[in-house]
Design goal:
The chain is α/β, with parallel strands linked by helices. It is 21% helix and 28% strand. The strands form two sheets. Strands 10, 11, 12, 13, 14, 15, 16, 17, 18, 19 and 20 form an eleven-stranded mixed beta sheet that branches. The longest helix is centred in the middle third of the chain and has 24 residues.
Length: 538
Amino acid sequence: MRDGVLLATDVYGADPGVPAPTVLARVPYDKNSRYVFFDRIAERFTARGYVVVVQDVRGKFRSQGRTLGWTGEVDDGYDTIEWITRQPWSDGIVGMFGDSYYGFTQWSAVAAQHPALRAIVPRVTCTNNGPGIASYDPGSGPQPPWLEGTTYQAQVWTDHDSFEFDVDLTRRPVLAAYEEAFTAIGKRSAGFDLIVGGIPLAPYNGPHPYDARPVPVLHCVGWFDNLGIAHMRDVTELARRPGWAAVQYLIADTIDHENYFLEDAPVPPDADHQLDDTALERMLDSYTGPAVEFFDVFLKGVARPESLPRVRWKLGHVGWRTASAWPPPEATPTELYLAQASAAAGPVPGGTLARHPADGTESVRWRYDPDDLVPSAAADTFAQLRDHADERRTLDRDDVLVFTGPVPDGPLDLAGPIHAMLHVESTTPTYDVFVRLLDLAPDGTARLIVRGCAQADRPGEVRIALGHTGYRLRPGHRLALMIASSDFPNHLPNSGSTQSPWLTTTPKAGLQTLRTGSSHPSRLSLTVLPASGEEPGK
C-alpha cells in the first residue's frame, strides 16, 4: 500500500502469457477459510477465463496494519487495483465481488474511482458503514442499538484474529459483559469503543459512492437478509441518479445473510452448506452464477448488456420472475389500517387489519418490562432461515400487540416496500417500537416475512421501514402484524430514561399507547401485485 503496509493476497488462475480480466475480493474473515470458500469460488471464475485475487484487508489475519473496520478501504482498494493492473497476467480490467463487509470494500473502491474498476457485484451489503445498520432507513429516525452488530465488532475487529466468545447480555450494565471478554482476551476493539461512545466512523476519504463515477453494479439482495433494508436503500437511491440508474441491475433472492434459502427452511443438515460439502457446491452455483454472467458482459464484453434482465427477483413460495424495474411496474401500494385495537393485547387473532380506518379514535396499551424482554425472531439473524422459527408463542404474549388480516380469497403477492406508520406515546422519555410482519398459517404457526424498528422520544407518528420483499401469502394464510417494545437479544434494551442503555443498571419499565382510527390512522403500507388481489383487507 502507499504507506508501506503489506496486504496478504492470493492470486488464482494467473497466466502471464494470456492477460485476462481480474475479479477482486477484499475480505476480513480469513481469505483461506472455509467460511468464505474462495478456493471453490475461484474455480468457478477461473474456469471462465478470469483471474481471481483475494486479499485479507488491513489489520486482519495475514495482512499488516491497524485493525479498525470501515476505515482505510478507499485507499487500499485503489492501491490493490493499481497493483493488479501492473501485473503481467492482467489485461487492465478489474471487477469486484462479495458479501457483506466485502461488499462494503467494493463500494469503497468505487469511491476511490480507479479507472480500471469496470463492474461490481455487492451481495447482502450496503454503502453505509458500521455495525448498526441492520434496519437502517433515514426515514425511520434513530434506531435501537443492534447488539448482534456490536458483538460482531467486538469479536471480529479486536485484532488480526477473530475471537469467539459468549456475551451474557442479561448483565447490567450490558457493557460489563463485553469488558469481561476484553479482559480475558487481553486486548479490546477500538471499533467497539467508538460504537458505545456514539462516535461515528468516517468510511470514505473521498466522495460517497453515490457521488462517484458510476460503474455497472449487480446488487444481490436477500429478502431475509438482516442488511436488506440498508441494501435496498442503495438500490432505490441509485435509481434516482441517472448515471447510476443506467448501469444498475438487481437480483433479489429468498435468502438470508448466510445464504440459506426460504425453500429449504428450516434447513436440514444435508441442505446446510456450512456443514455439508454437497450442499455447499449447490449453493455456490447460484452464488457465483449471476456474477460470472454479469462480468461476461461488463468485463469481457462477450455478451450484450440487453441480455441481462434489469431485475430478477424471486417470489417466495413461487419462483423467479423478471421485471423492468423495482418494484415491478404493475405493483401497487395498498394500506391496511389497524382496527379493533382493544383486542390487540389479547391472544391471536387480536385486532384486525382493515381496508379502512374505524371512525374516531381507538387505543390500546402494551408494556415494556426490561426484566421480561420480548424474544427475538432468531438468536442469530444472520442465519434467519436456518431455523425459520415459529413465533406463535411470541404473538400470544401479553406485552405485544397483534393485528391479523382476513384470509384472502386467493394468494396475496407482496412485491416491493413495506412500512408501518404507528401513532404511539409512552410513559417513558425514550422508547423503542419493534414491528414484525408474519405469515400466519392455517395450523397456527407464524413465521417472519419482514421486520423493522425505530426509537422515539416523543408522542406522535412513528414511521418504521420493514424493508422490501417478494413473498406469496398462500391461500388459507393470513398476515399478522406484531408490535413490541423490545427484541432481545438482537437489540439493546431501552433504558427507559435518559441514561445510556449501555451503562444503566436499573432500566425503567414503561407503558406505551397505540392510537388508531380515522383521527390517528395507524396503518401498514404494502406493495402488492394485482393478480394477488388489490383489496386484501375488508
